[in-house]
TrEMBL record:
HAMAP family: GARS (MF_00138)
Lineage of origin: Bacteria, Bacillati, Actinomycetota, Actinomycetes, Micrococcales
ATP-grasp domain mapped to chain residues: 110-311
GO molecular function: ATP binding; metal ion binding; phosphoribosylamine-glycine ligase activity
SMART domains linked to this entry: GARS_A, GARS_C
Listed EC numbers: 6.3.4.13
InterPro entries recorded: ATP-grasp (IPR011761), ATP_grasp_subdomain_1 (IPR013815), PreATP-grasp_dom_sf (IPR016185), PRibGlycinamid_synth_ATP-grasp (IPR020561), PRibGlycinamide_synth (IPR000115), PRibGlycinamide_synth_C-dom (IPR020560), PRibGlycinamide_synth_C_sf (IPR037123), PRibGlycinamide_synth_CS (IPR020559)
Residue segments, region Disordered: 341-370
Name the record gives this protein: Phosphoribosylamine--glycine ligase
GO biological process: 'de novo' IMP biosynthetic process; purine nucleobase biosynthetic process
Keyword Ligase among UniProt keywords: yes
Pathway in which the depicted protein is active: Purine metabolism; IMP biosynthesis via de novo pathway; N(1)-(5-phospho-D-ribosyl)glycinamide from 5-phospho-alpha-D-ribose 1-diphosphate: step 2/2
Protein source organism: Nostocoides jenkinsii Ben 74
């Protein structure tokens, strides 16, 4: 089996890693990939407009005669790359452009949630500042203001400062066809749940929790994500089944009835409120950095289950099997991230430190996964310099994944490993999963 993975971040590195390690896979092609992915897959450049270029991606899939295409980022999905691949007869894991509106437009997602009866926050869709002001007054503080379109996880402001909320709304509305959503603030801890679908059947992965704010103690602006962990020992019993029954399956059914069958992964971002689980947002792809910890724990063949989803046979797939181990991921960000990331700095210490670490190339592989203190590095925004040195090329540069029998061991492994990586001005949060380790997370009754 040959698989093409589209994308170049740590999420795609995690996908490539899980796919490449599977014995049913003969070769993985990554377009365009990154230096870490290159140790596991054949990286090929994409011409034209890059990953959003339907013709270029389809040409790569045809040239390499792949059996499955997995699209990582949201932009090519919203732009219809999955449609072009399916039209060429290539099995593709990722929704159509029509179905990808669940992430491409928050207003569209709210409409689908309403039709499906999905519990979510009250919201006002606004196209003028007068409507924004009315929405803020109606829902009250803390204010939640979201850019309607794609914003790489950074289009949301949650604040008790009305002027800050208005300023964010104004910036969003200045864009062509600007539209924003003012939402009710949802209390309670947040949970990320990935749900695989072939348009009919829904299969949940293990829940995770991510950390969106750049600073420790959940301070500072939102980012694409600074860390995550799984499993969630504090989550209520029956949570996953409840989310499938009340949220994911009704959404998938509604999309199919509207003529937009959803094939791919539906990311359900939840708040566990005092009134039960409510949807914060939908995404139409694997989230980053939650993917890193979820796939680290998956025993079941990932390419097999993704191919089943892509070909409408998810109902025939065997139940998923998970390692009992705990996984924690910590993101190393470039200086200035997220407001004004400074790229080009040299990264050292990301290569395998020694054979005892269990790595096999580019800091990506380790053989003792699930054991005491295992850790490895996944590349996000990196590139090679003229002399072969590793350079930062994006806001989020690397992801370190640590795992162990419990949160303490997994956190220790991740932080020990990231401490050996140097990037001048680089920063990471030191409190990922800390409150969970201390047993301080509670779900409102």
């Amino acid at each position: 089996m040959k698989v093409l993975v589209v994308g170049s971040g740590a999420r795609e590195h995690a996908l490539v890693r899980a796919i490449a390690l599977d014995p049913m896979v003969d070769e993985v092609i990554a377009a365009p990939g990154n230096p870490g992915i290159a140790a596991l897959a054949t990286c090929v450049p994409i011409g034209g407009d890059g990953i959003t270029d339907k013709h270029a991606v389809t040409a790569i899939a045809r040239e390499h005669e792949v059996d499955l295409v997995v699209i990582g980022p949201e932009a090519p999905l919203v732009d219809g790359v999955a449609d072009a691949l399916r039209a060429a007869g290539i099995p593709t894991f990722g929704p159509s452009a029509a179905a990808a509106q669940l992430e491409g437009s928050k207003a569209f997602a709210k409409r689908i949630m309403a039709e499906a009866g999905v519990p979510t926050a009250f919201a006002h869709v606004c196209t003028t500042m007068a409507e924004v002001a009315d929405g803020l007054d109606a829902l009250g503080a803390p204010y939640v203001v979201k850019d309607d379109g794609l914003a790489a996880g950074k289009g949301v402001v949650v604040t008790s400062d009305r002027d800050e909320a208005l300023a964010h709304a104004a910036a969003c509305l200045e864009r062509p066809d600007g539209r924003i959503v003012v939402e009710e603030f949802l209390d309670g801890p947040e949970v990320s749940l990935f749900c695989l679908s072939d348009g009919l059947t829904v299969v949940p992965l293990a829940p995770a929790q991510d950390f969106k704010r750049v600073g420790e103690g959940d301070q500072g602006p939102n980012t694409g994500g600074m860390g995550a962990y799984s499993p969630l020992e504090w989550a209520p019993e029956g949570l996953v089944a409840d989310v499938i029954d009340r949220i994911a399956q009704p959404t998938i059914d509604t999309m199919r009835h509207l003529g937009m069958p959803f094939v791919g992964v539906l990311y359900v971002g939840l708040a566990l409120t005092s009134r039960g689980p409510k949807v914060i947002e939908f995404n139409v792809r694997f989230g980053d950095p939650e993917t890193q910890v979820v796939l680290d724990r998956l025993v079941t063949s990932l390419p097999e289950v993704l191919l089943a989803a892509a070909t409408g046979q998810l109902d025939l797939a065997e139940p998923l099997v998970w390692r009992a181990a705990t996984s924690v991921t910590v993101v190393l960000a470039a200086p200035g991230y997220p407001e004004s990331p400074v790229t080009g700095g040299e990264v050292t210490g990301a290569e395998p430190a020694d054979a005892g670490e269990g790595d096999e190339g580019e800091g990506a592989e380790e053989t003792g996964r699930g054991g005491e203190g295992a850790a490895y590095v996944l590349h996000a925004g990196t590139r090679r310099g003229a002399a072969g040195e590793l350079l930062a090329s994006g806001g989020r540069v690397l992801t370190v994944v640590g795992n162990g029998p419990d949160l303490a061991a997994a956190r220790g492994a991740a932080y020990d490993r990231i401490a050996r990586i140097q990037l001048e001005g680089g920063h990471f949060r030191r409190d990922i999963a800390e409150r969970a380790e201390r047993g301080e997370i509670t779900v409102p009754s």
